[in-house]
Amino acid sequence: MRSSLLRSLRQIAAIAAIVLTSLTSSAFAYWSNTGEGSASANLATLSSPAISSAMPGAETVELTWSAVTAPSTGTVEYYVTRDGSTASAGCPSSSSRSTATSCTDTGVPVGAHKYKVTAVWRSWTATGEEQTVTVAYGPATHLVLEAASTAPAAGEADNLTITVKDASNDTVASYSGAHSLVFEGAAESASGEEPFVIDRSGVEKGFGEATEINFSEGRATVSSAMNGVMKLFKAEAAHIKVKEGALNNGAGLAVTVKAAATTKRLAISALSEQTAGVAITVTLTATDEYGNTTTSYAGAKTLAWSGPASSPSGKAPEYPAGATAVTFTSGVGKATGIKLFDAATTMLTVKEGSSVEGASGSFVVKAGATKKFSVPTPSEQEAGVAFNVTLTATDEYGNLASTYTGAKTLTWSGPSNAPSGQAPEYPSTATAVTFTEGVGTASQLKLYDAQSPTLKAKEGTIEGATPGSFTVKAASATSFSVPTPTEKTAGAAFNVTVTALDTWHNTAKSYVGAKTVTFSEPANSPSGQAPSYPATVTFAAGAGTASIKLYDAQSTTLKASEGAIEGASGSFTVKAGATKKFSVPAPSEQEAGVAFNVTLTATDEWGNLTAGYAGSKTLAFSEPASSPSGQAPEYPASATTVTFAAGVGTASLLKLYDAQNTTLKVKEGATVVGTSGSFTVKAAAAERFAWAHAEVTAGAIEAGTCPFACKTTSIGLSKKFKAHASVTDKYGNIVSNLGATTKAKVEQTSGAGTLANATGLTIPTSGLAESATIFEYTSPAAGASEAVLKLKSEEGTAYTEAEAHVKY
Fold first, then answer.
1. Residue 52: predicted pLDDT
2. What is the reported pLDDT for 798?
3. Is 777 exposed, middle or buried (0-12, 13-18, 19+ CB in 10 A)?
4. Whole-number Cα distances in Å, 438 to 312, 349, 455
5. Is residue 551 classed as helix, strand or coil in its secondary structure?
6. Which of 29, 70, 74 lies closest to 49 in space, CA to CA?
7. Which of 60, 411, 706, 725 gets the most CB atoms within 10 Å of its CB?
8. Which three-class secondary structure string do you get for 244-273?
9. What DSSP string describes 755-793?
10. 421 C-beta neighbours (distance < 10 Å), count
């Protein structure tokens, strides 16, 4: 018995071990067996799937369920039942299971249905809880269109509601989002406005166009003035249809569109061809802004007309009382007595008040009888060049008279002769002209006067002239016109306007831009100043102004040329300018201290004699220096008070004392000056010894004391006084070319110090009378006093001695 029990327990343990190794730790065993013994173990089970989502649609149900984990190896499969039976082929069945965890059941009748999902693993099954789903509608079969108003006024916004229905007329709630619809059934208005519906984005879409509309749960309504706002414009009974693919609203929504409340326009009846100046009658119909007749428009109305132009002659259209005060009945009235004068295709525009207006279609107004010539204003012509003029016969209002045809004899007038006397030319080609349909061309006219004329043509009683003047321009420039200047002043700028002329003496206005004009004839001034002419002259419209300066006082002419183009003025006078200078001739060689005369000539700044400079003048002379001895030049009254006659005066008895090359400057007042050329003043006769080029190595030589009596400030101790020995005239000018041997020496008559080169100071016999040897005095190393030095003759002529007083 114990062994039998032990075997049973071992069997149970082995089986439990097998089961536990083959099942997952979370599953519980599910089976039955017989045997003996006792033990404990965990048992595996298959979980039931749970429907997590059941979404009804149009005869559809979309199911989703939870996945079940297999207890061990192998795959879990599923099948679905509806109302205890197999669902549609869209879901797995018991005979055709699937591992999918979702499906769509189709062909589900409207009503409540019970769904279950069963999981299958090997031979095990587990069915989840039943879930009831209600299907409320079937597939969409048609559209239902509704409008806020079925009797809107033209142009009035009408909100549409569109509902999607199934065959049972239930709303198909799954029909949502944007759908492309097409609307039909209404016509465009008489004025051309097309019906439209505003789509979901606010865009106006015409009937017949794809229109995007948003649906929510099978219904589309207007939101924010979008998504189905309709506007119709023609007053009519319409049936508004809407469709998307096979879905539509059948015969459509009956809508009666009435005219807008306010009259906006006046429709004008069609007009046949009219004759300029002949009265016409016009029938008017009042409409709303879309062309629908507004029968409420009645009674007397004040109308304003426009549109047709004035005739070519300027005759304006006439709108009498019969056209401006019109009585309307049921929206219709007649305007009478209108006269139009412009032969053209035109249209009439009418207005009542500030808002009611209208326009006719186009119609033709034809010309009346021939009365005039229209002579076009020619374009710019050139003198002497032939041109043509096309004439147009017109009625009295300036409209083309196309019946005026054949050969006509014309006479011409208007333009003048040229400045040279050349008359206009009108050959036979201009006087015998053939007209075709009112138009003829006169050719080969030639005009010679560069002006702005008018041109007149005449044939019997028919005549005409250019409405405005036209330009005849000059031909190319062939000469210059140079005006004769009035009297000019030397050096003063003046302007000369040079004019380019053509062959007939018209101003050649095409001669423009910078031109290199050469001027000639006037001479240089006495001072050599050449005339001043511009490098170029800029011409505008044939005339150019040159700024000129002439400097020679004379009678002259002025010639201008540029290539082959030239011209000259008549004779004119250039007078001297204001007195600015003296012409001072360079005197010949003069001797120091000897009187001489200078003849002065008053001139302008260019050297022209100023003959008006006359009478007693007070002169001031300068430039020559004082002599080495300090003798200043002498300018007596006979030199400083001079009487001028016709610009000429003589200053006399001038004396100069400095032997040098100099100039002589003379001045009268603050502005009139003159300077001579350089001339020589030679020394007078030799008379004295003199210190030449005296210098000290310290201290200074007192001003004005040399050359005859040099004096110094204290030069200090052991310092030098140096000088050359020279022979001078009595003014201290060193003479030249003594011709005899002369030697000088230096003696010290008082004071201390030492001498060097004090004897044998040789004066040259030719050239400048000045020793080459330099005498030197050196002050003592101590003490304070004055050394007196004498320069005297050692050999030859005994000239007057010179002294030097050197302090130390």
1. 96
2. 94
3. buried
4. 15, 31, 19
5. coil
6. 70
7. 725
8. ECCEECCCCEEEECECCCCCCEEEECCCCC
9. EES-S-EEEPSSSB-EEEEEEEEE--SS---EEEEEEEE
10. 10
Q: Report yes or no: 298 and 285 within 8 Å, Cβ to Cβ.
A: no
DSSP 331: T
Cβ–Cβ < 8 Å for 627, 616: no
pLDDT at 43: 60
Handedness of CA 338, 342, 346, 349 (dihedral sign): negative
| β-strands 381-382, 472-473 pairing | parallel
CA distances, 488 to each of 203, 293, 498, 555, 673 (Å): 86, 89, 17, 10, 24
Q: How many CB atoms lie within 10 A of CB 361?
A: 11
The residue with tokens 């005009």 is 447
Peptide linkage before 707 cis (omega within 30 of 0): yes
Structure tokens at 449: 């006067």
Do 441 and 391 meet the contact criterion of CB atoms below 8 Å apart? yes
Q: Provide the 3-class DSSP secondary structure of residue 342.
A: coil
In which element (H, E) is residue 439 found?
strand 439-445
pLDDT of residue 44: 80
The one-letter code for the residue type at 184 is E
Q: Are 271 and 282 in contact (CB under 8 A)?
A: yes
Find where tokens 């004379």 sit.
554
Work out whether the CA dihedral 153, 155, 156, 157 comes out positive or negative. Answer: positive
Q: What is the mean pLDDT of the chain?
A: 92
Dist. CA 60–CA 139, nearest whole Å: 9
* Residue whose pair of structure tokens reads 């000539």 in the numeric block: 601
Point out the residues of the chain with pLDDT beneath 50.
1-42
Residue 693 corresponds to which tokens in the numbers above? 């080029």
Integer Cα distance of 746 and 399 in angstroms: 128
Are residues 282 and 268 in contact, defined by beta-carbon separation less than 8 angstroms? Answer: yes
CA distance 804 to 646: 55
The conformation of residue 614, written as its DSSP 8-state character, comes to -
Tell me which residue has tokens 């007939």: 504
Beta bridge partners of 456: 413, 465
The Cα–Cα gap between 16 and 20 comes to 6
Cβ-based burial of 20 (10 A; exposed 0-12, middle 13-18, buried ≥19): middle
8-state DSSP, 487: -
Alpha helices in 600-691 (DSSP H): 637-640
Q: List the Cα angle 386/387/391 in 5-degree steps.
A: 145
Quote the CA–CA distance of 607 and 504 in Å, as a whole number.
44
pLDDT in tens, 758-773: 999 999 999 999 999 9
d(CA 502, CA 643): 57
Cα-based distances in Å from 523 to 516, 557, 603, 677? 20, 10, 17, 25
Q: What is residue 3's three-state secondary structure?
A: helix
Q: Are 383 and 306 in contact (CB under 8 A)?
A: no
Q: What spatial distance separates the first Cα and last Cα of the chain, rounded to whole Å? A: 174
For the chain, how many helices (H) and strands (E)? 4, 70
Q: What is the residue-wise DSSP string for 126-161?
A: EE---EEEEE-B--EEEEEEEES-SSPBTT-EEEEE
DSSP assignment string, 51-63:
EEEEEE-BSEEEE
DSSP-assigned states of every residue in 711-749: EB----TT-EEEEEEEEE-TTS-B-B---S-EEEEEEEE
10 Å Cβ neighbour count for 597?
12
CA dihedral 306, 311, 313, 318 (to 10 degrees): -50
**According to the model, what pLDDT value does residue 704 have?**
75
Number of residues that this document lists for the chain: 808
pLDDT at 626: 95
Structure tokens at 645: 């006659």
Tokens 């409405």 sit on residue: 467
Spacing of C-alpha 771 from chain mean position: 85
Closest CA to 793 of 744, 725, 755: 744
Rounded to whole angstroms, the Cα distance separating 664 from 582 reads 11
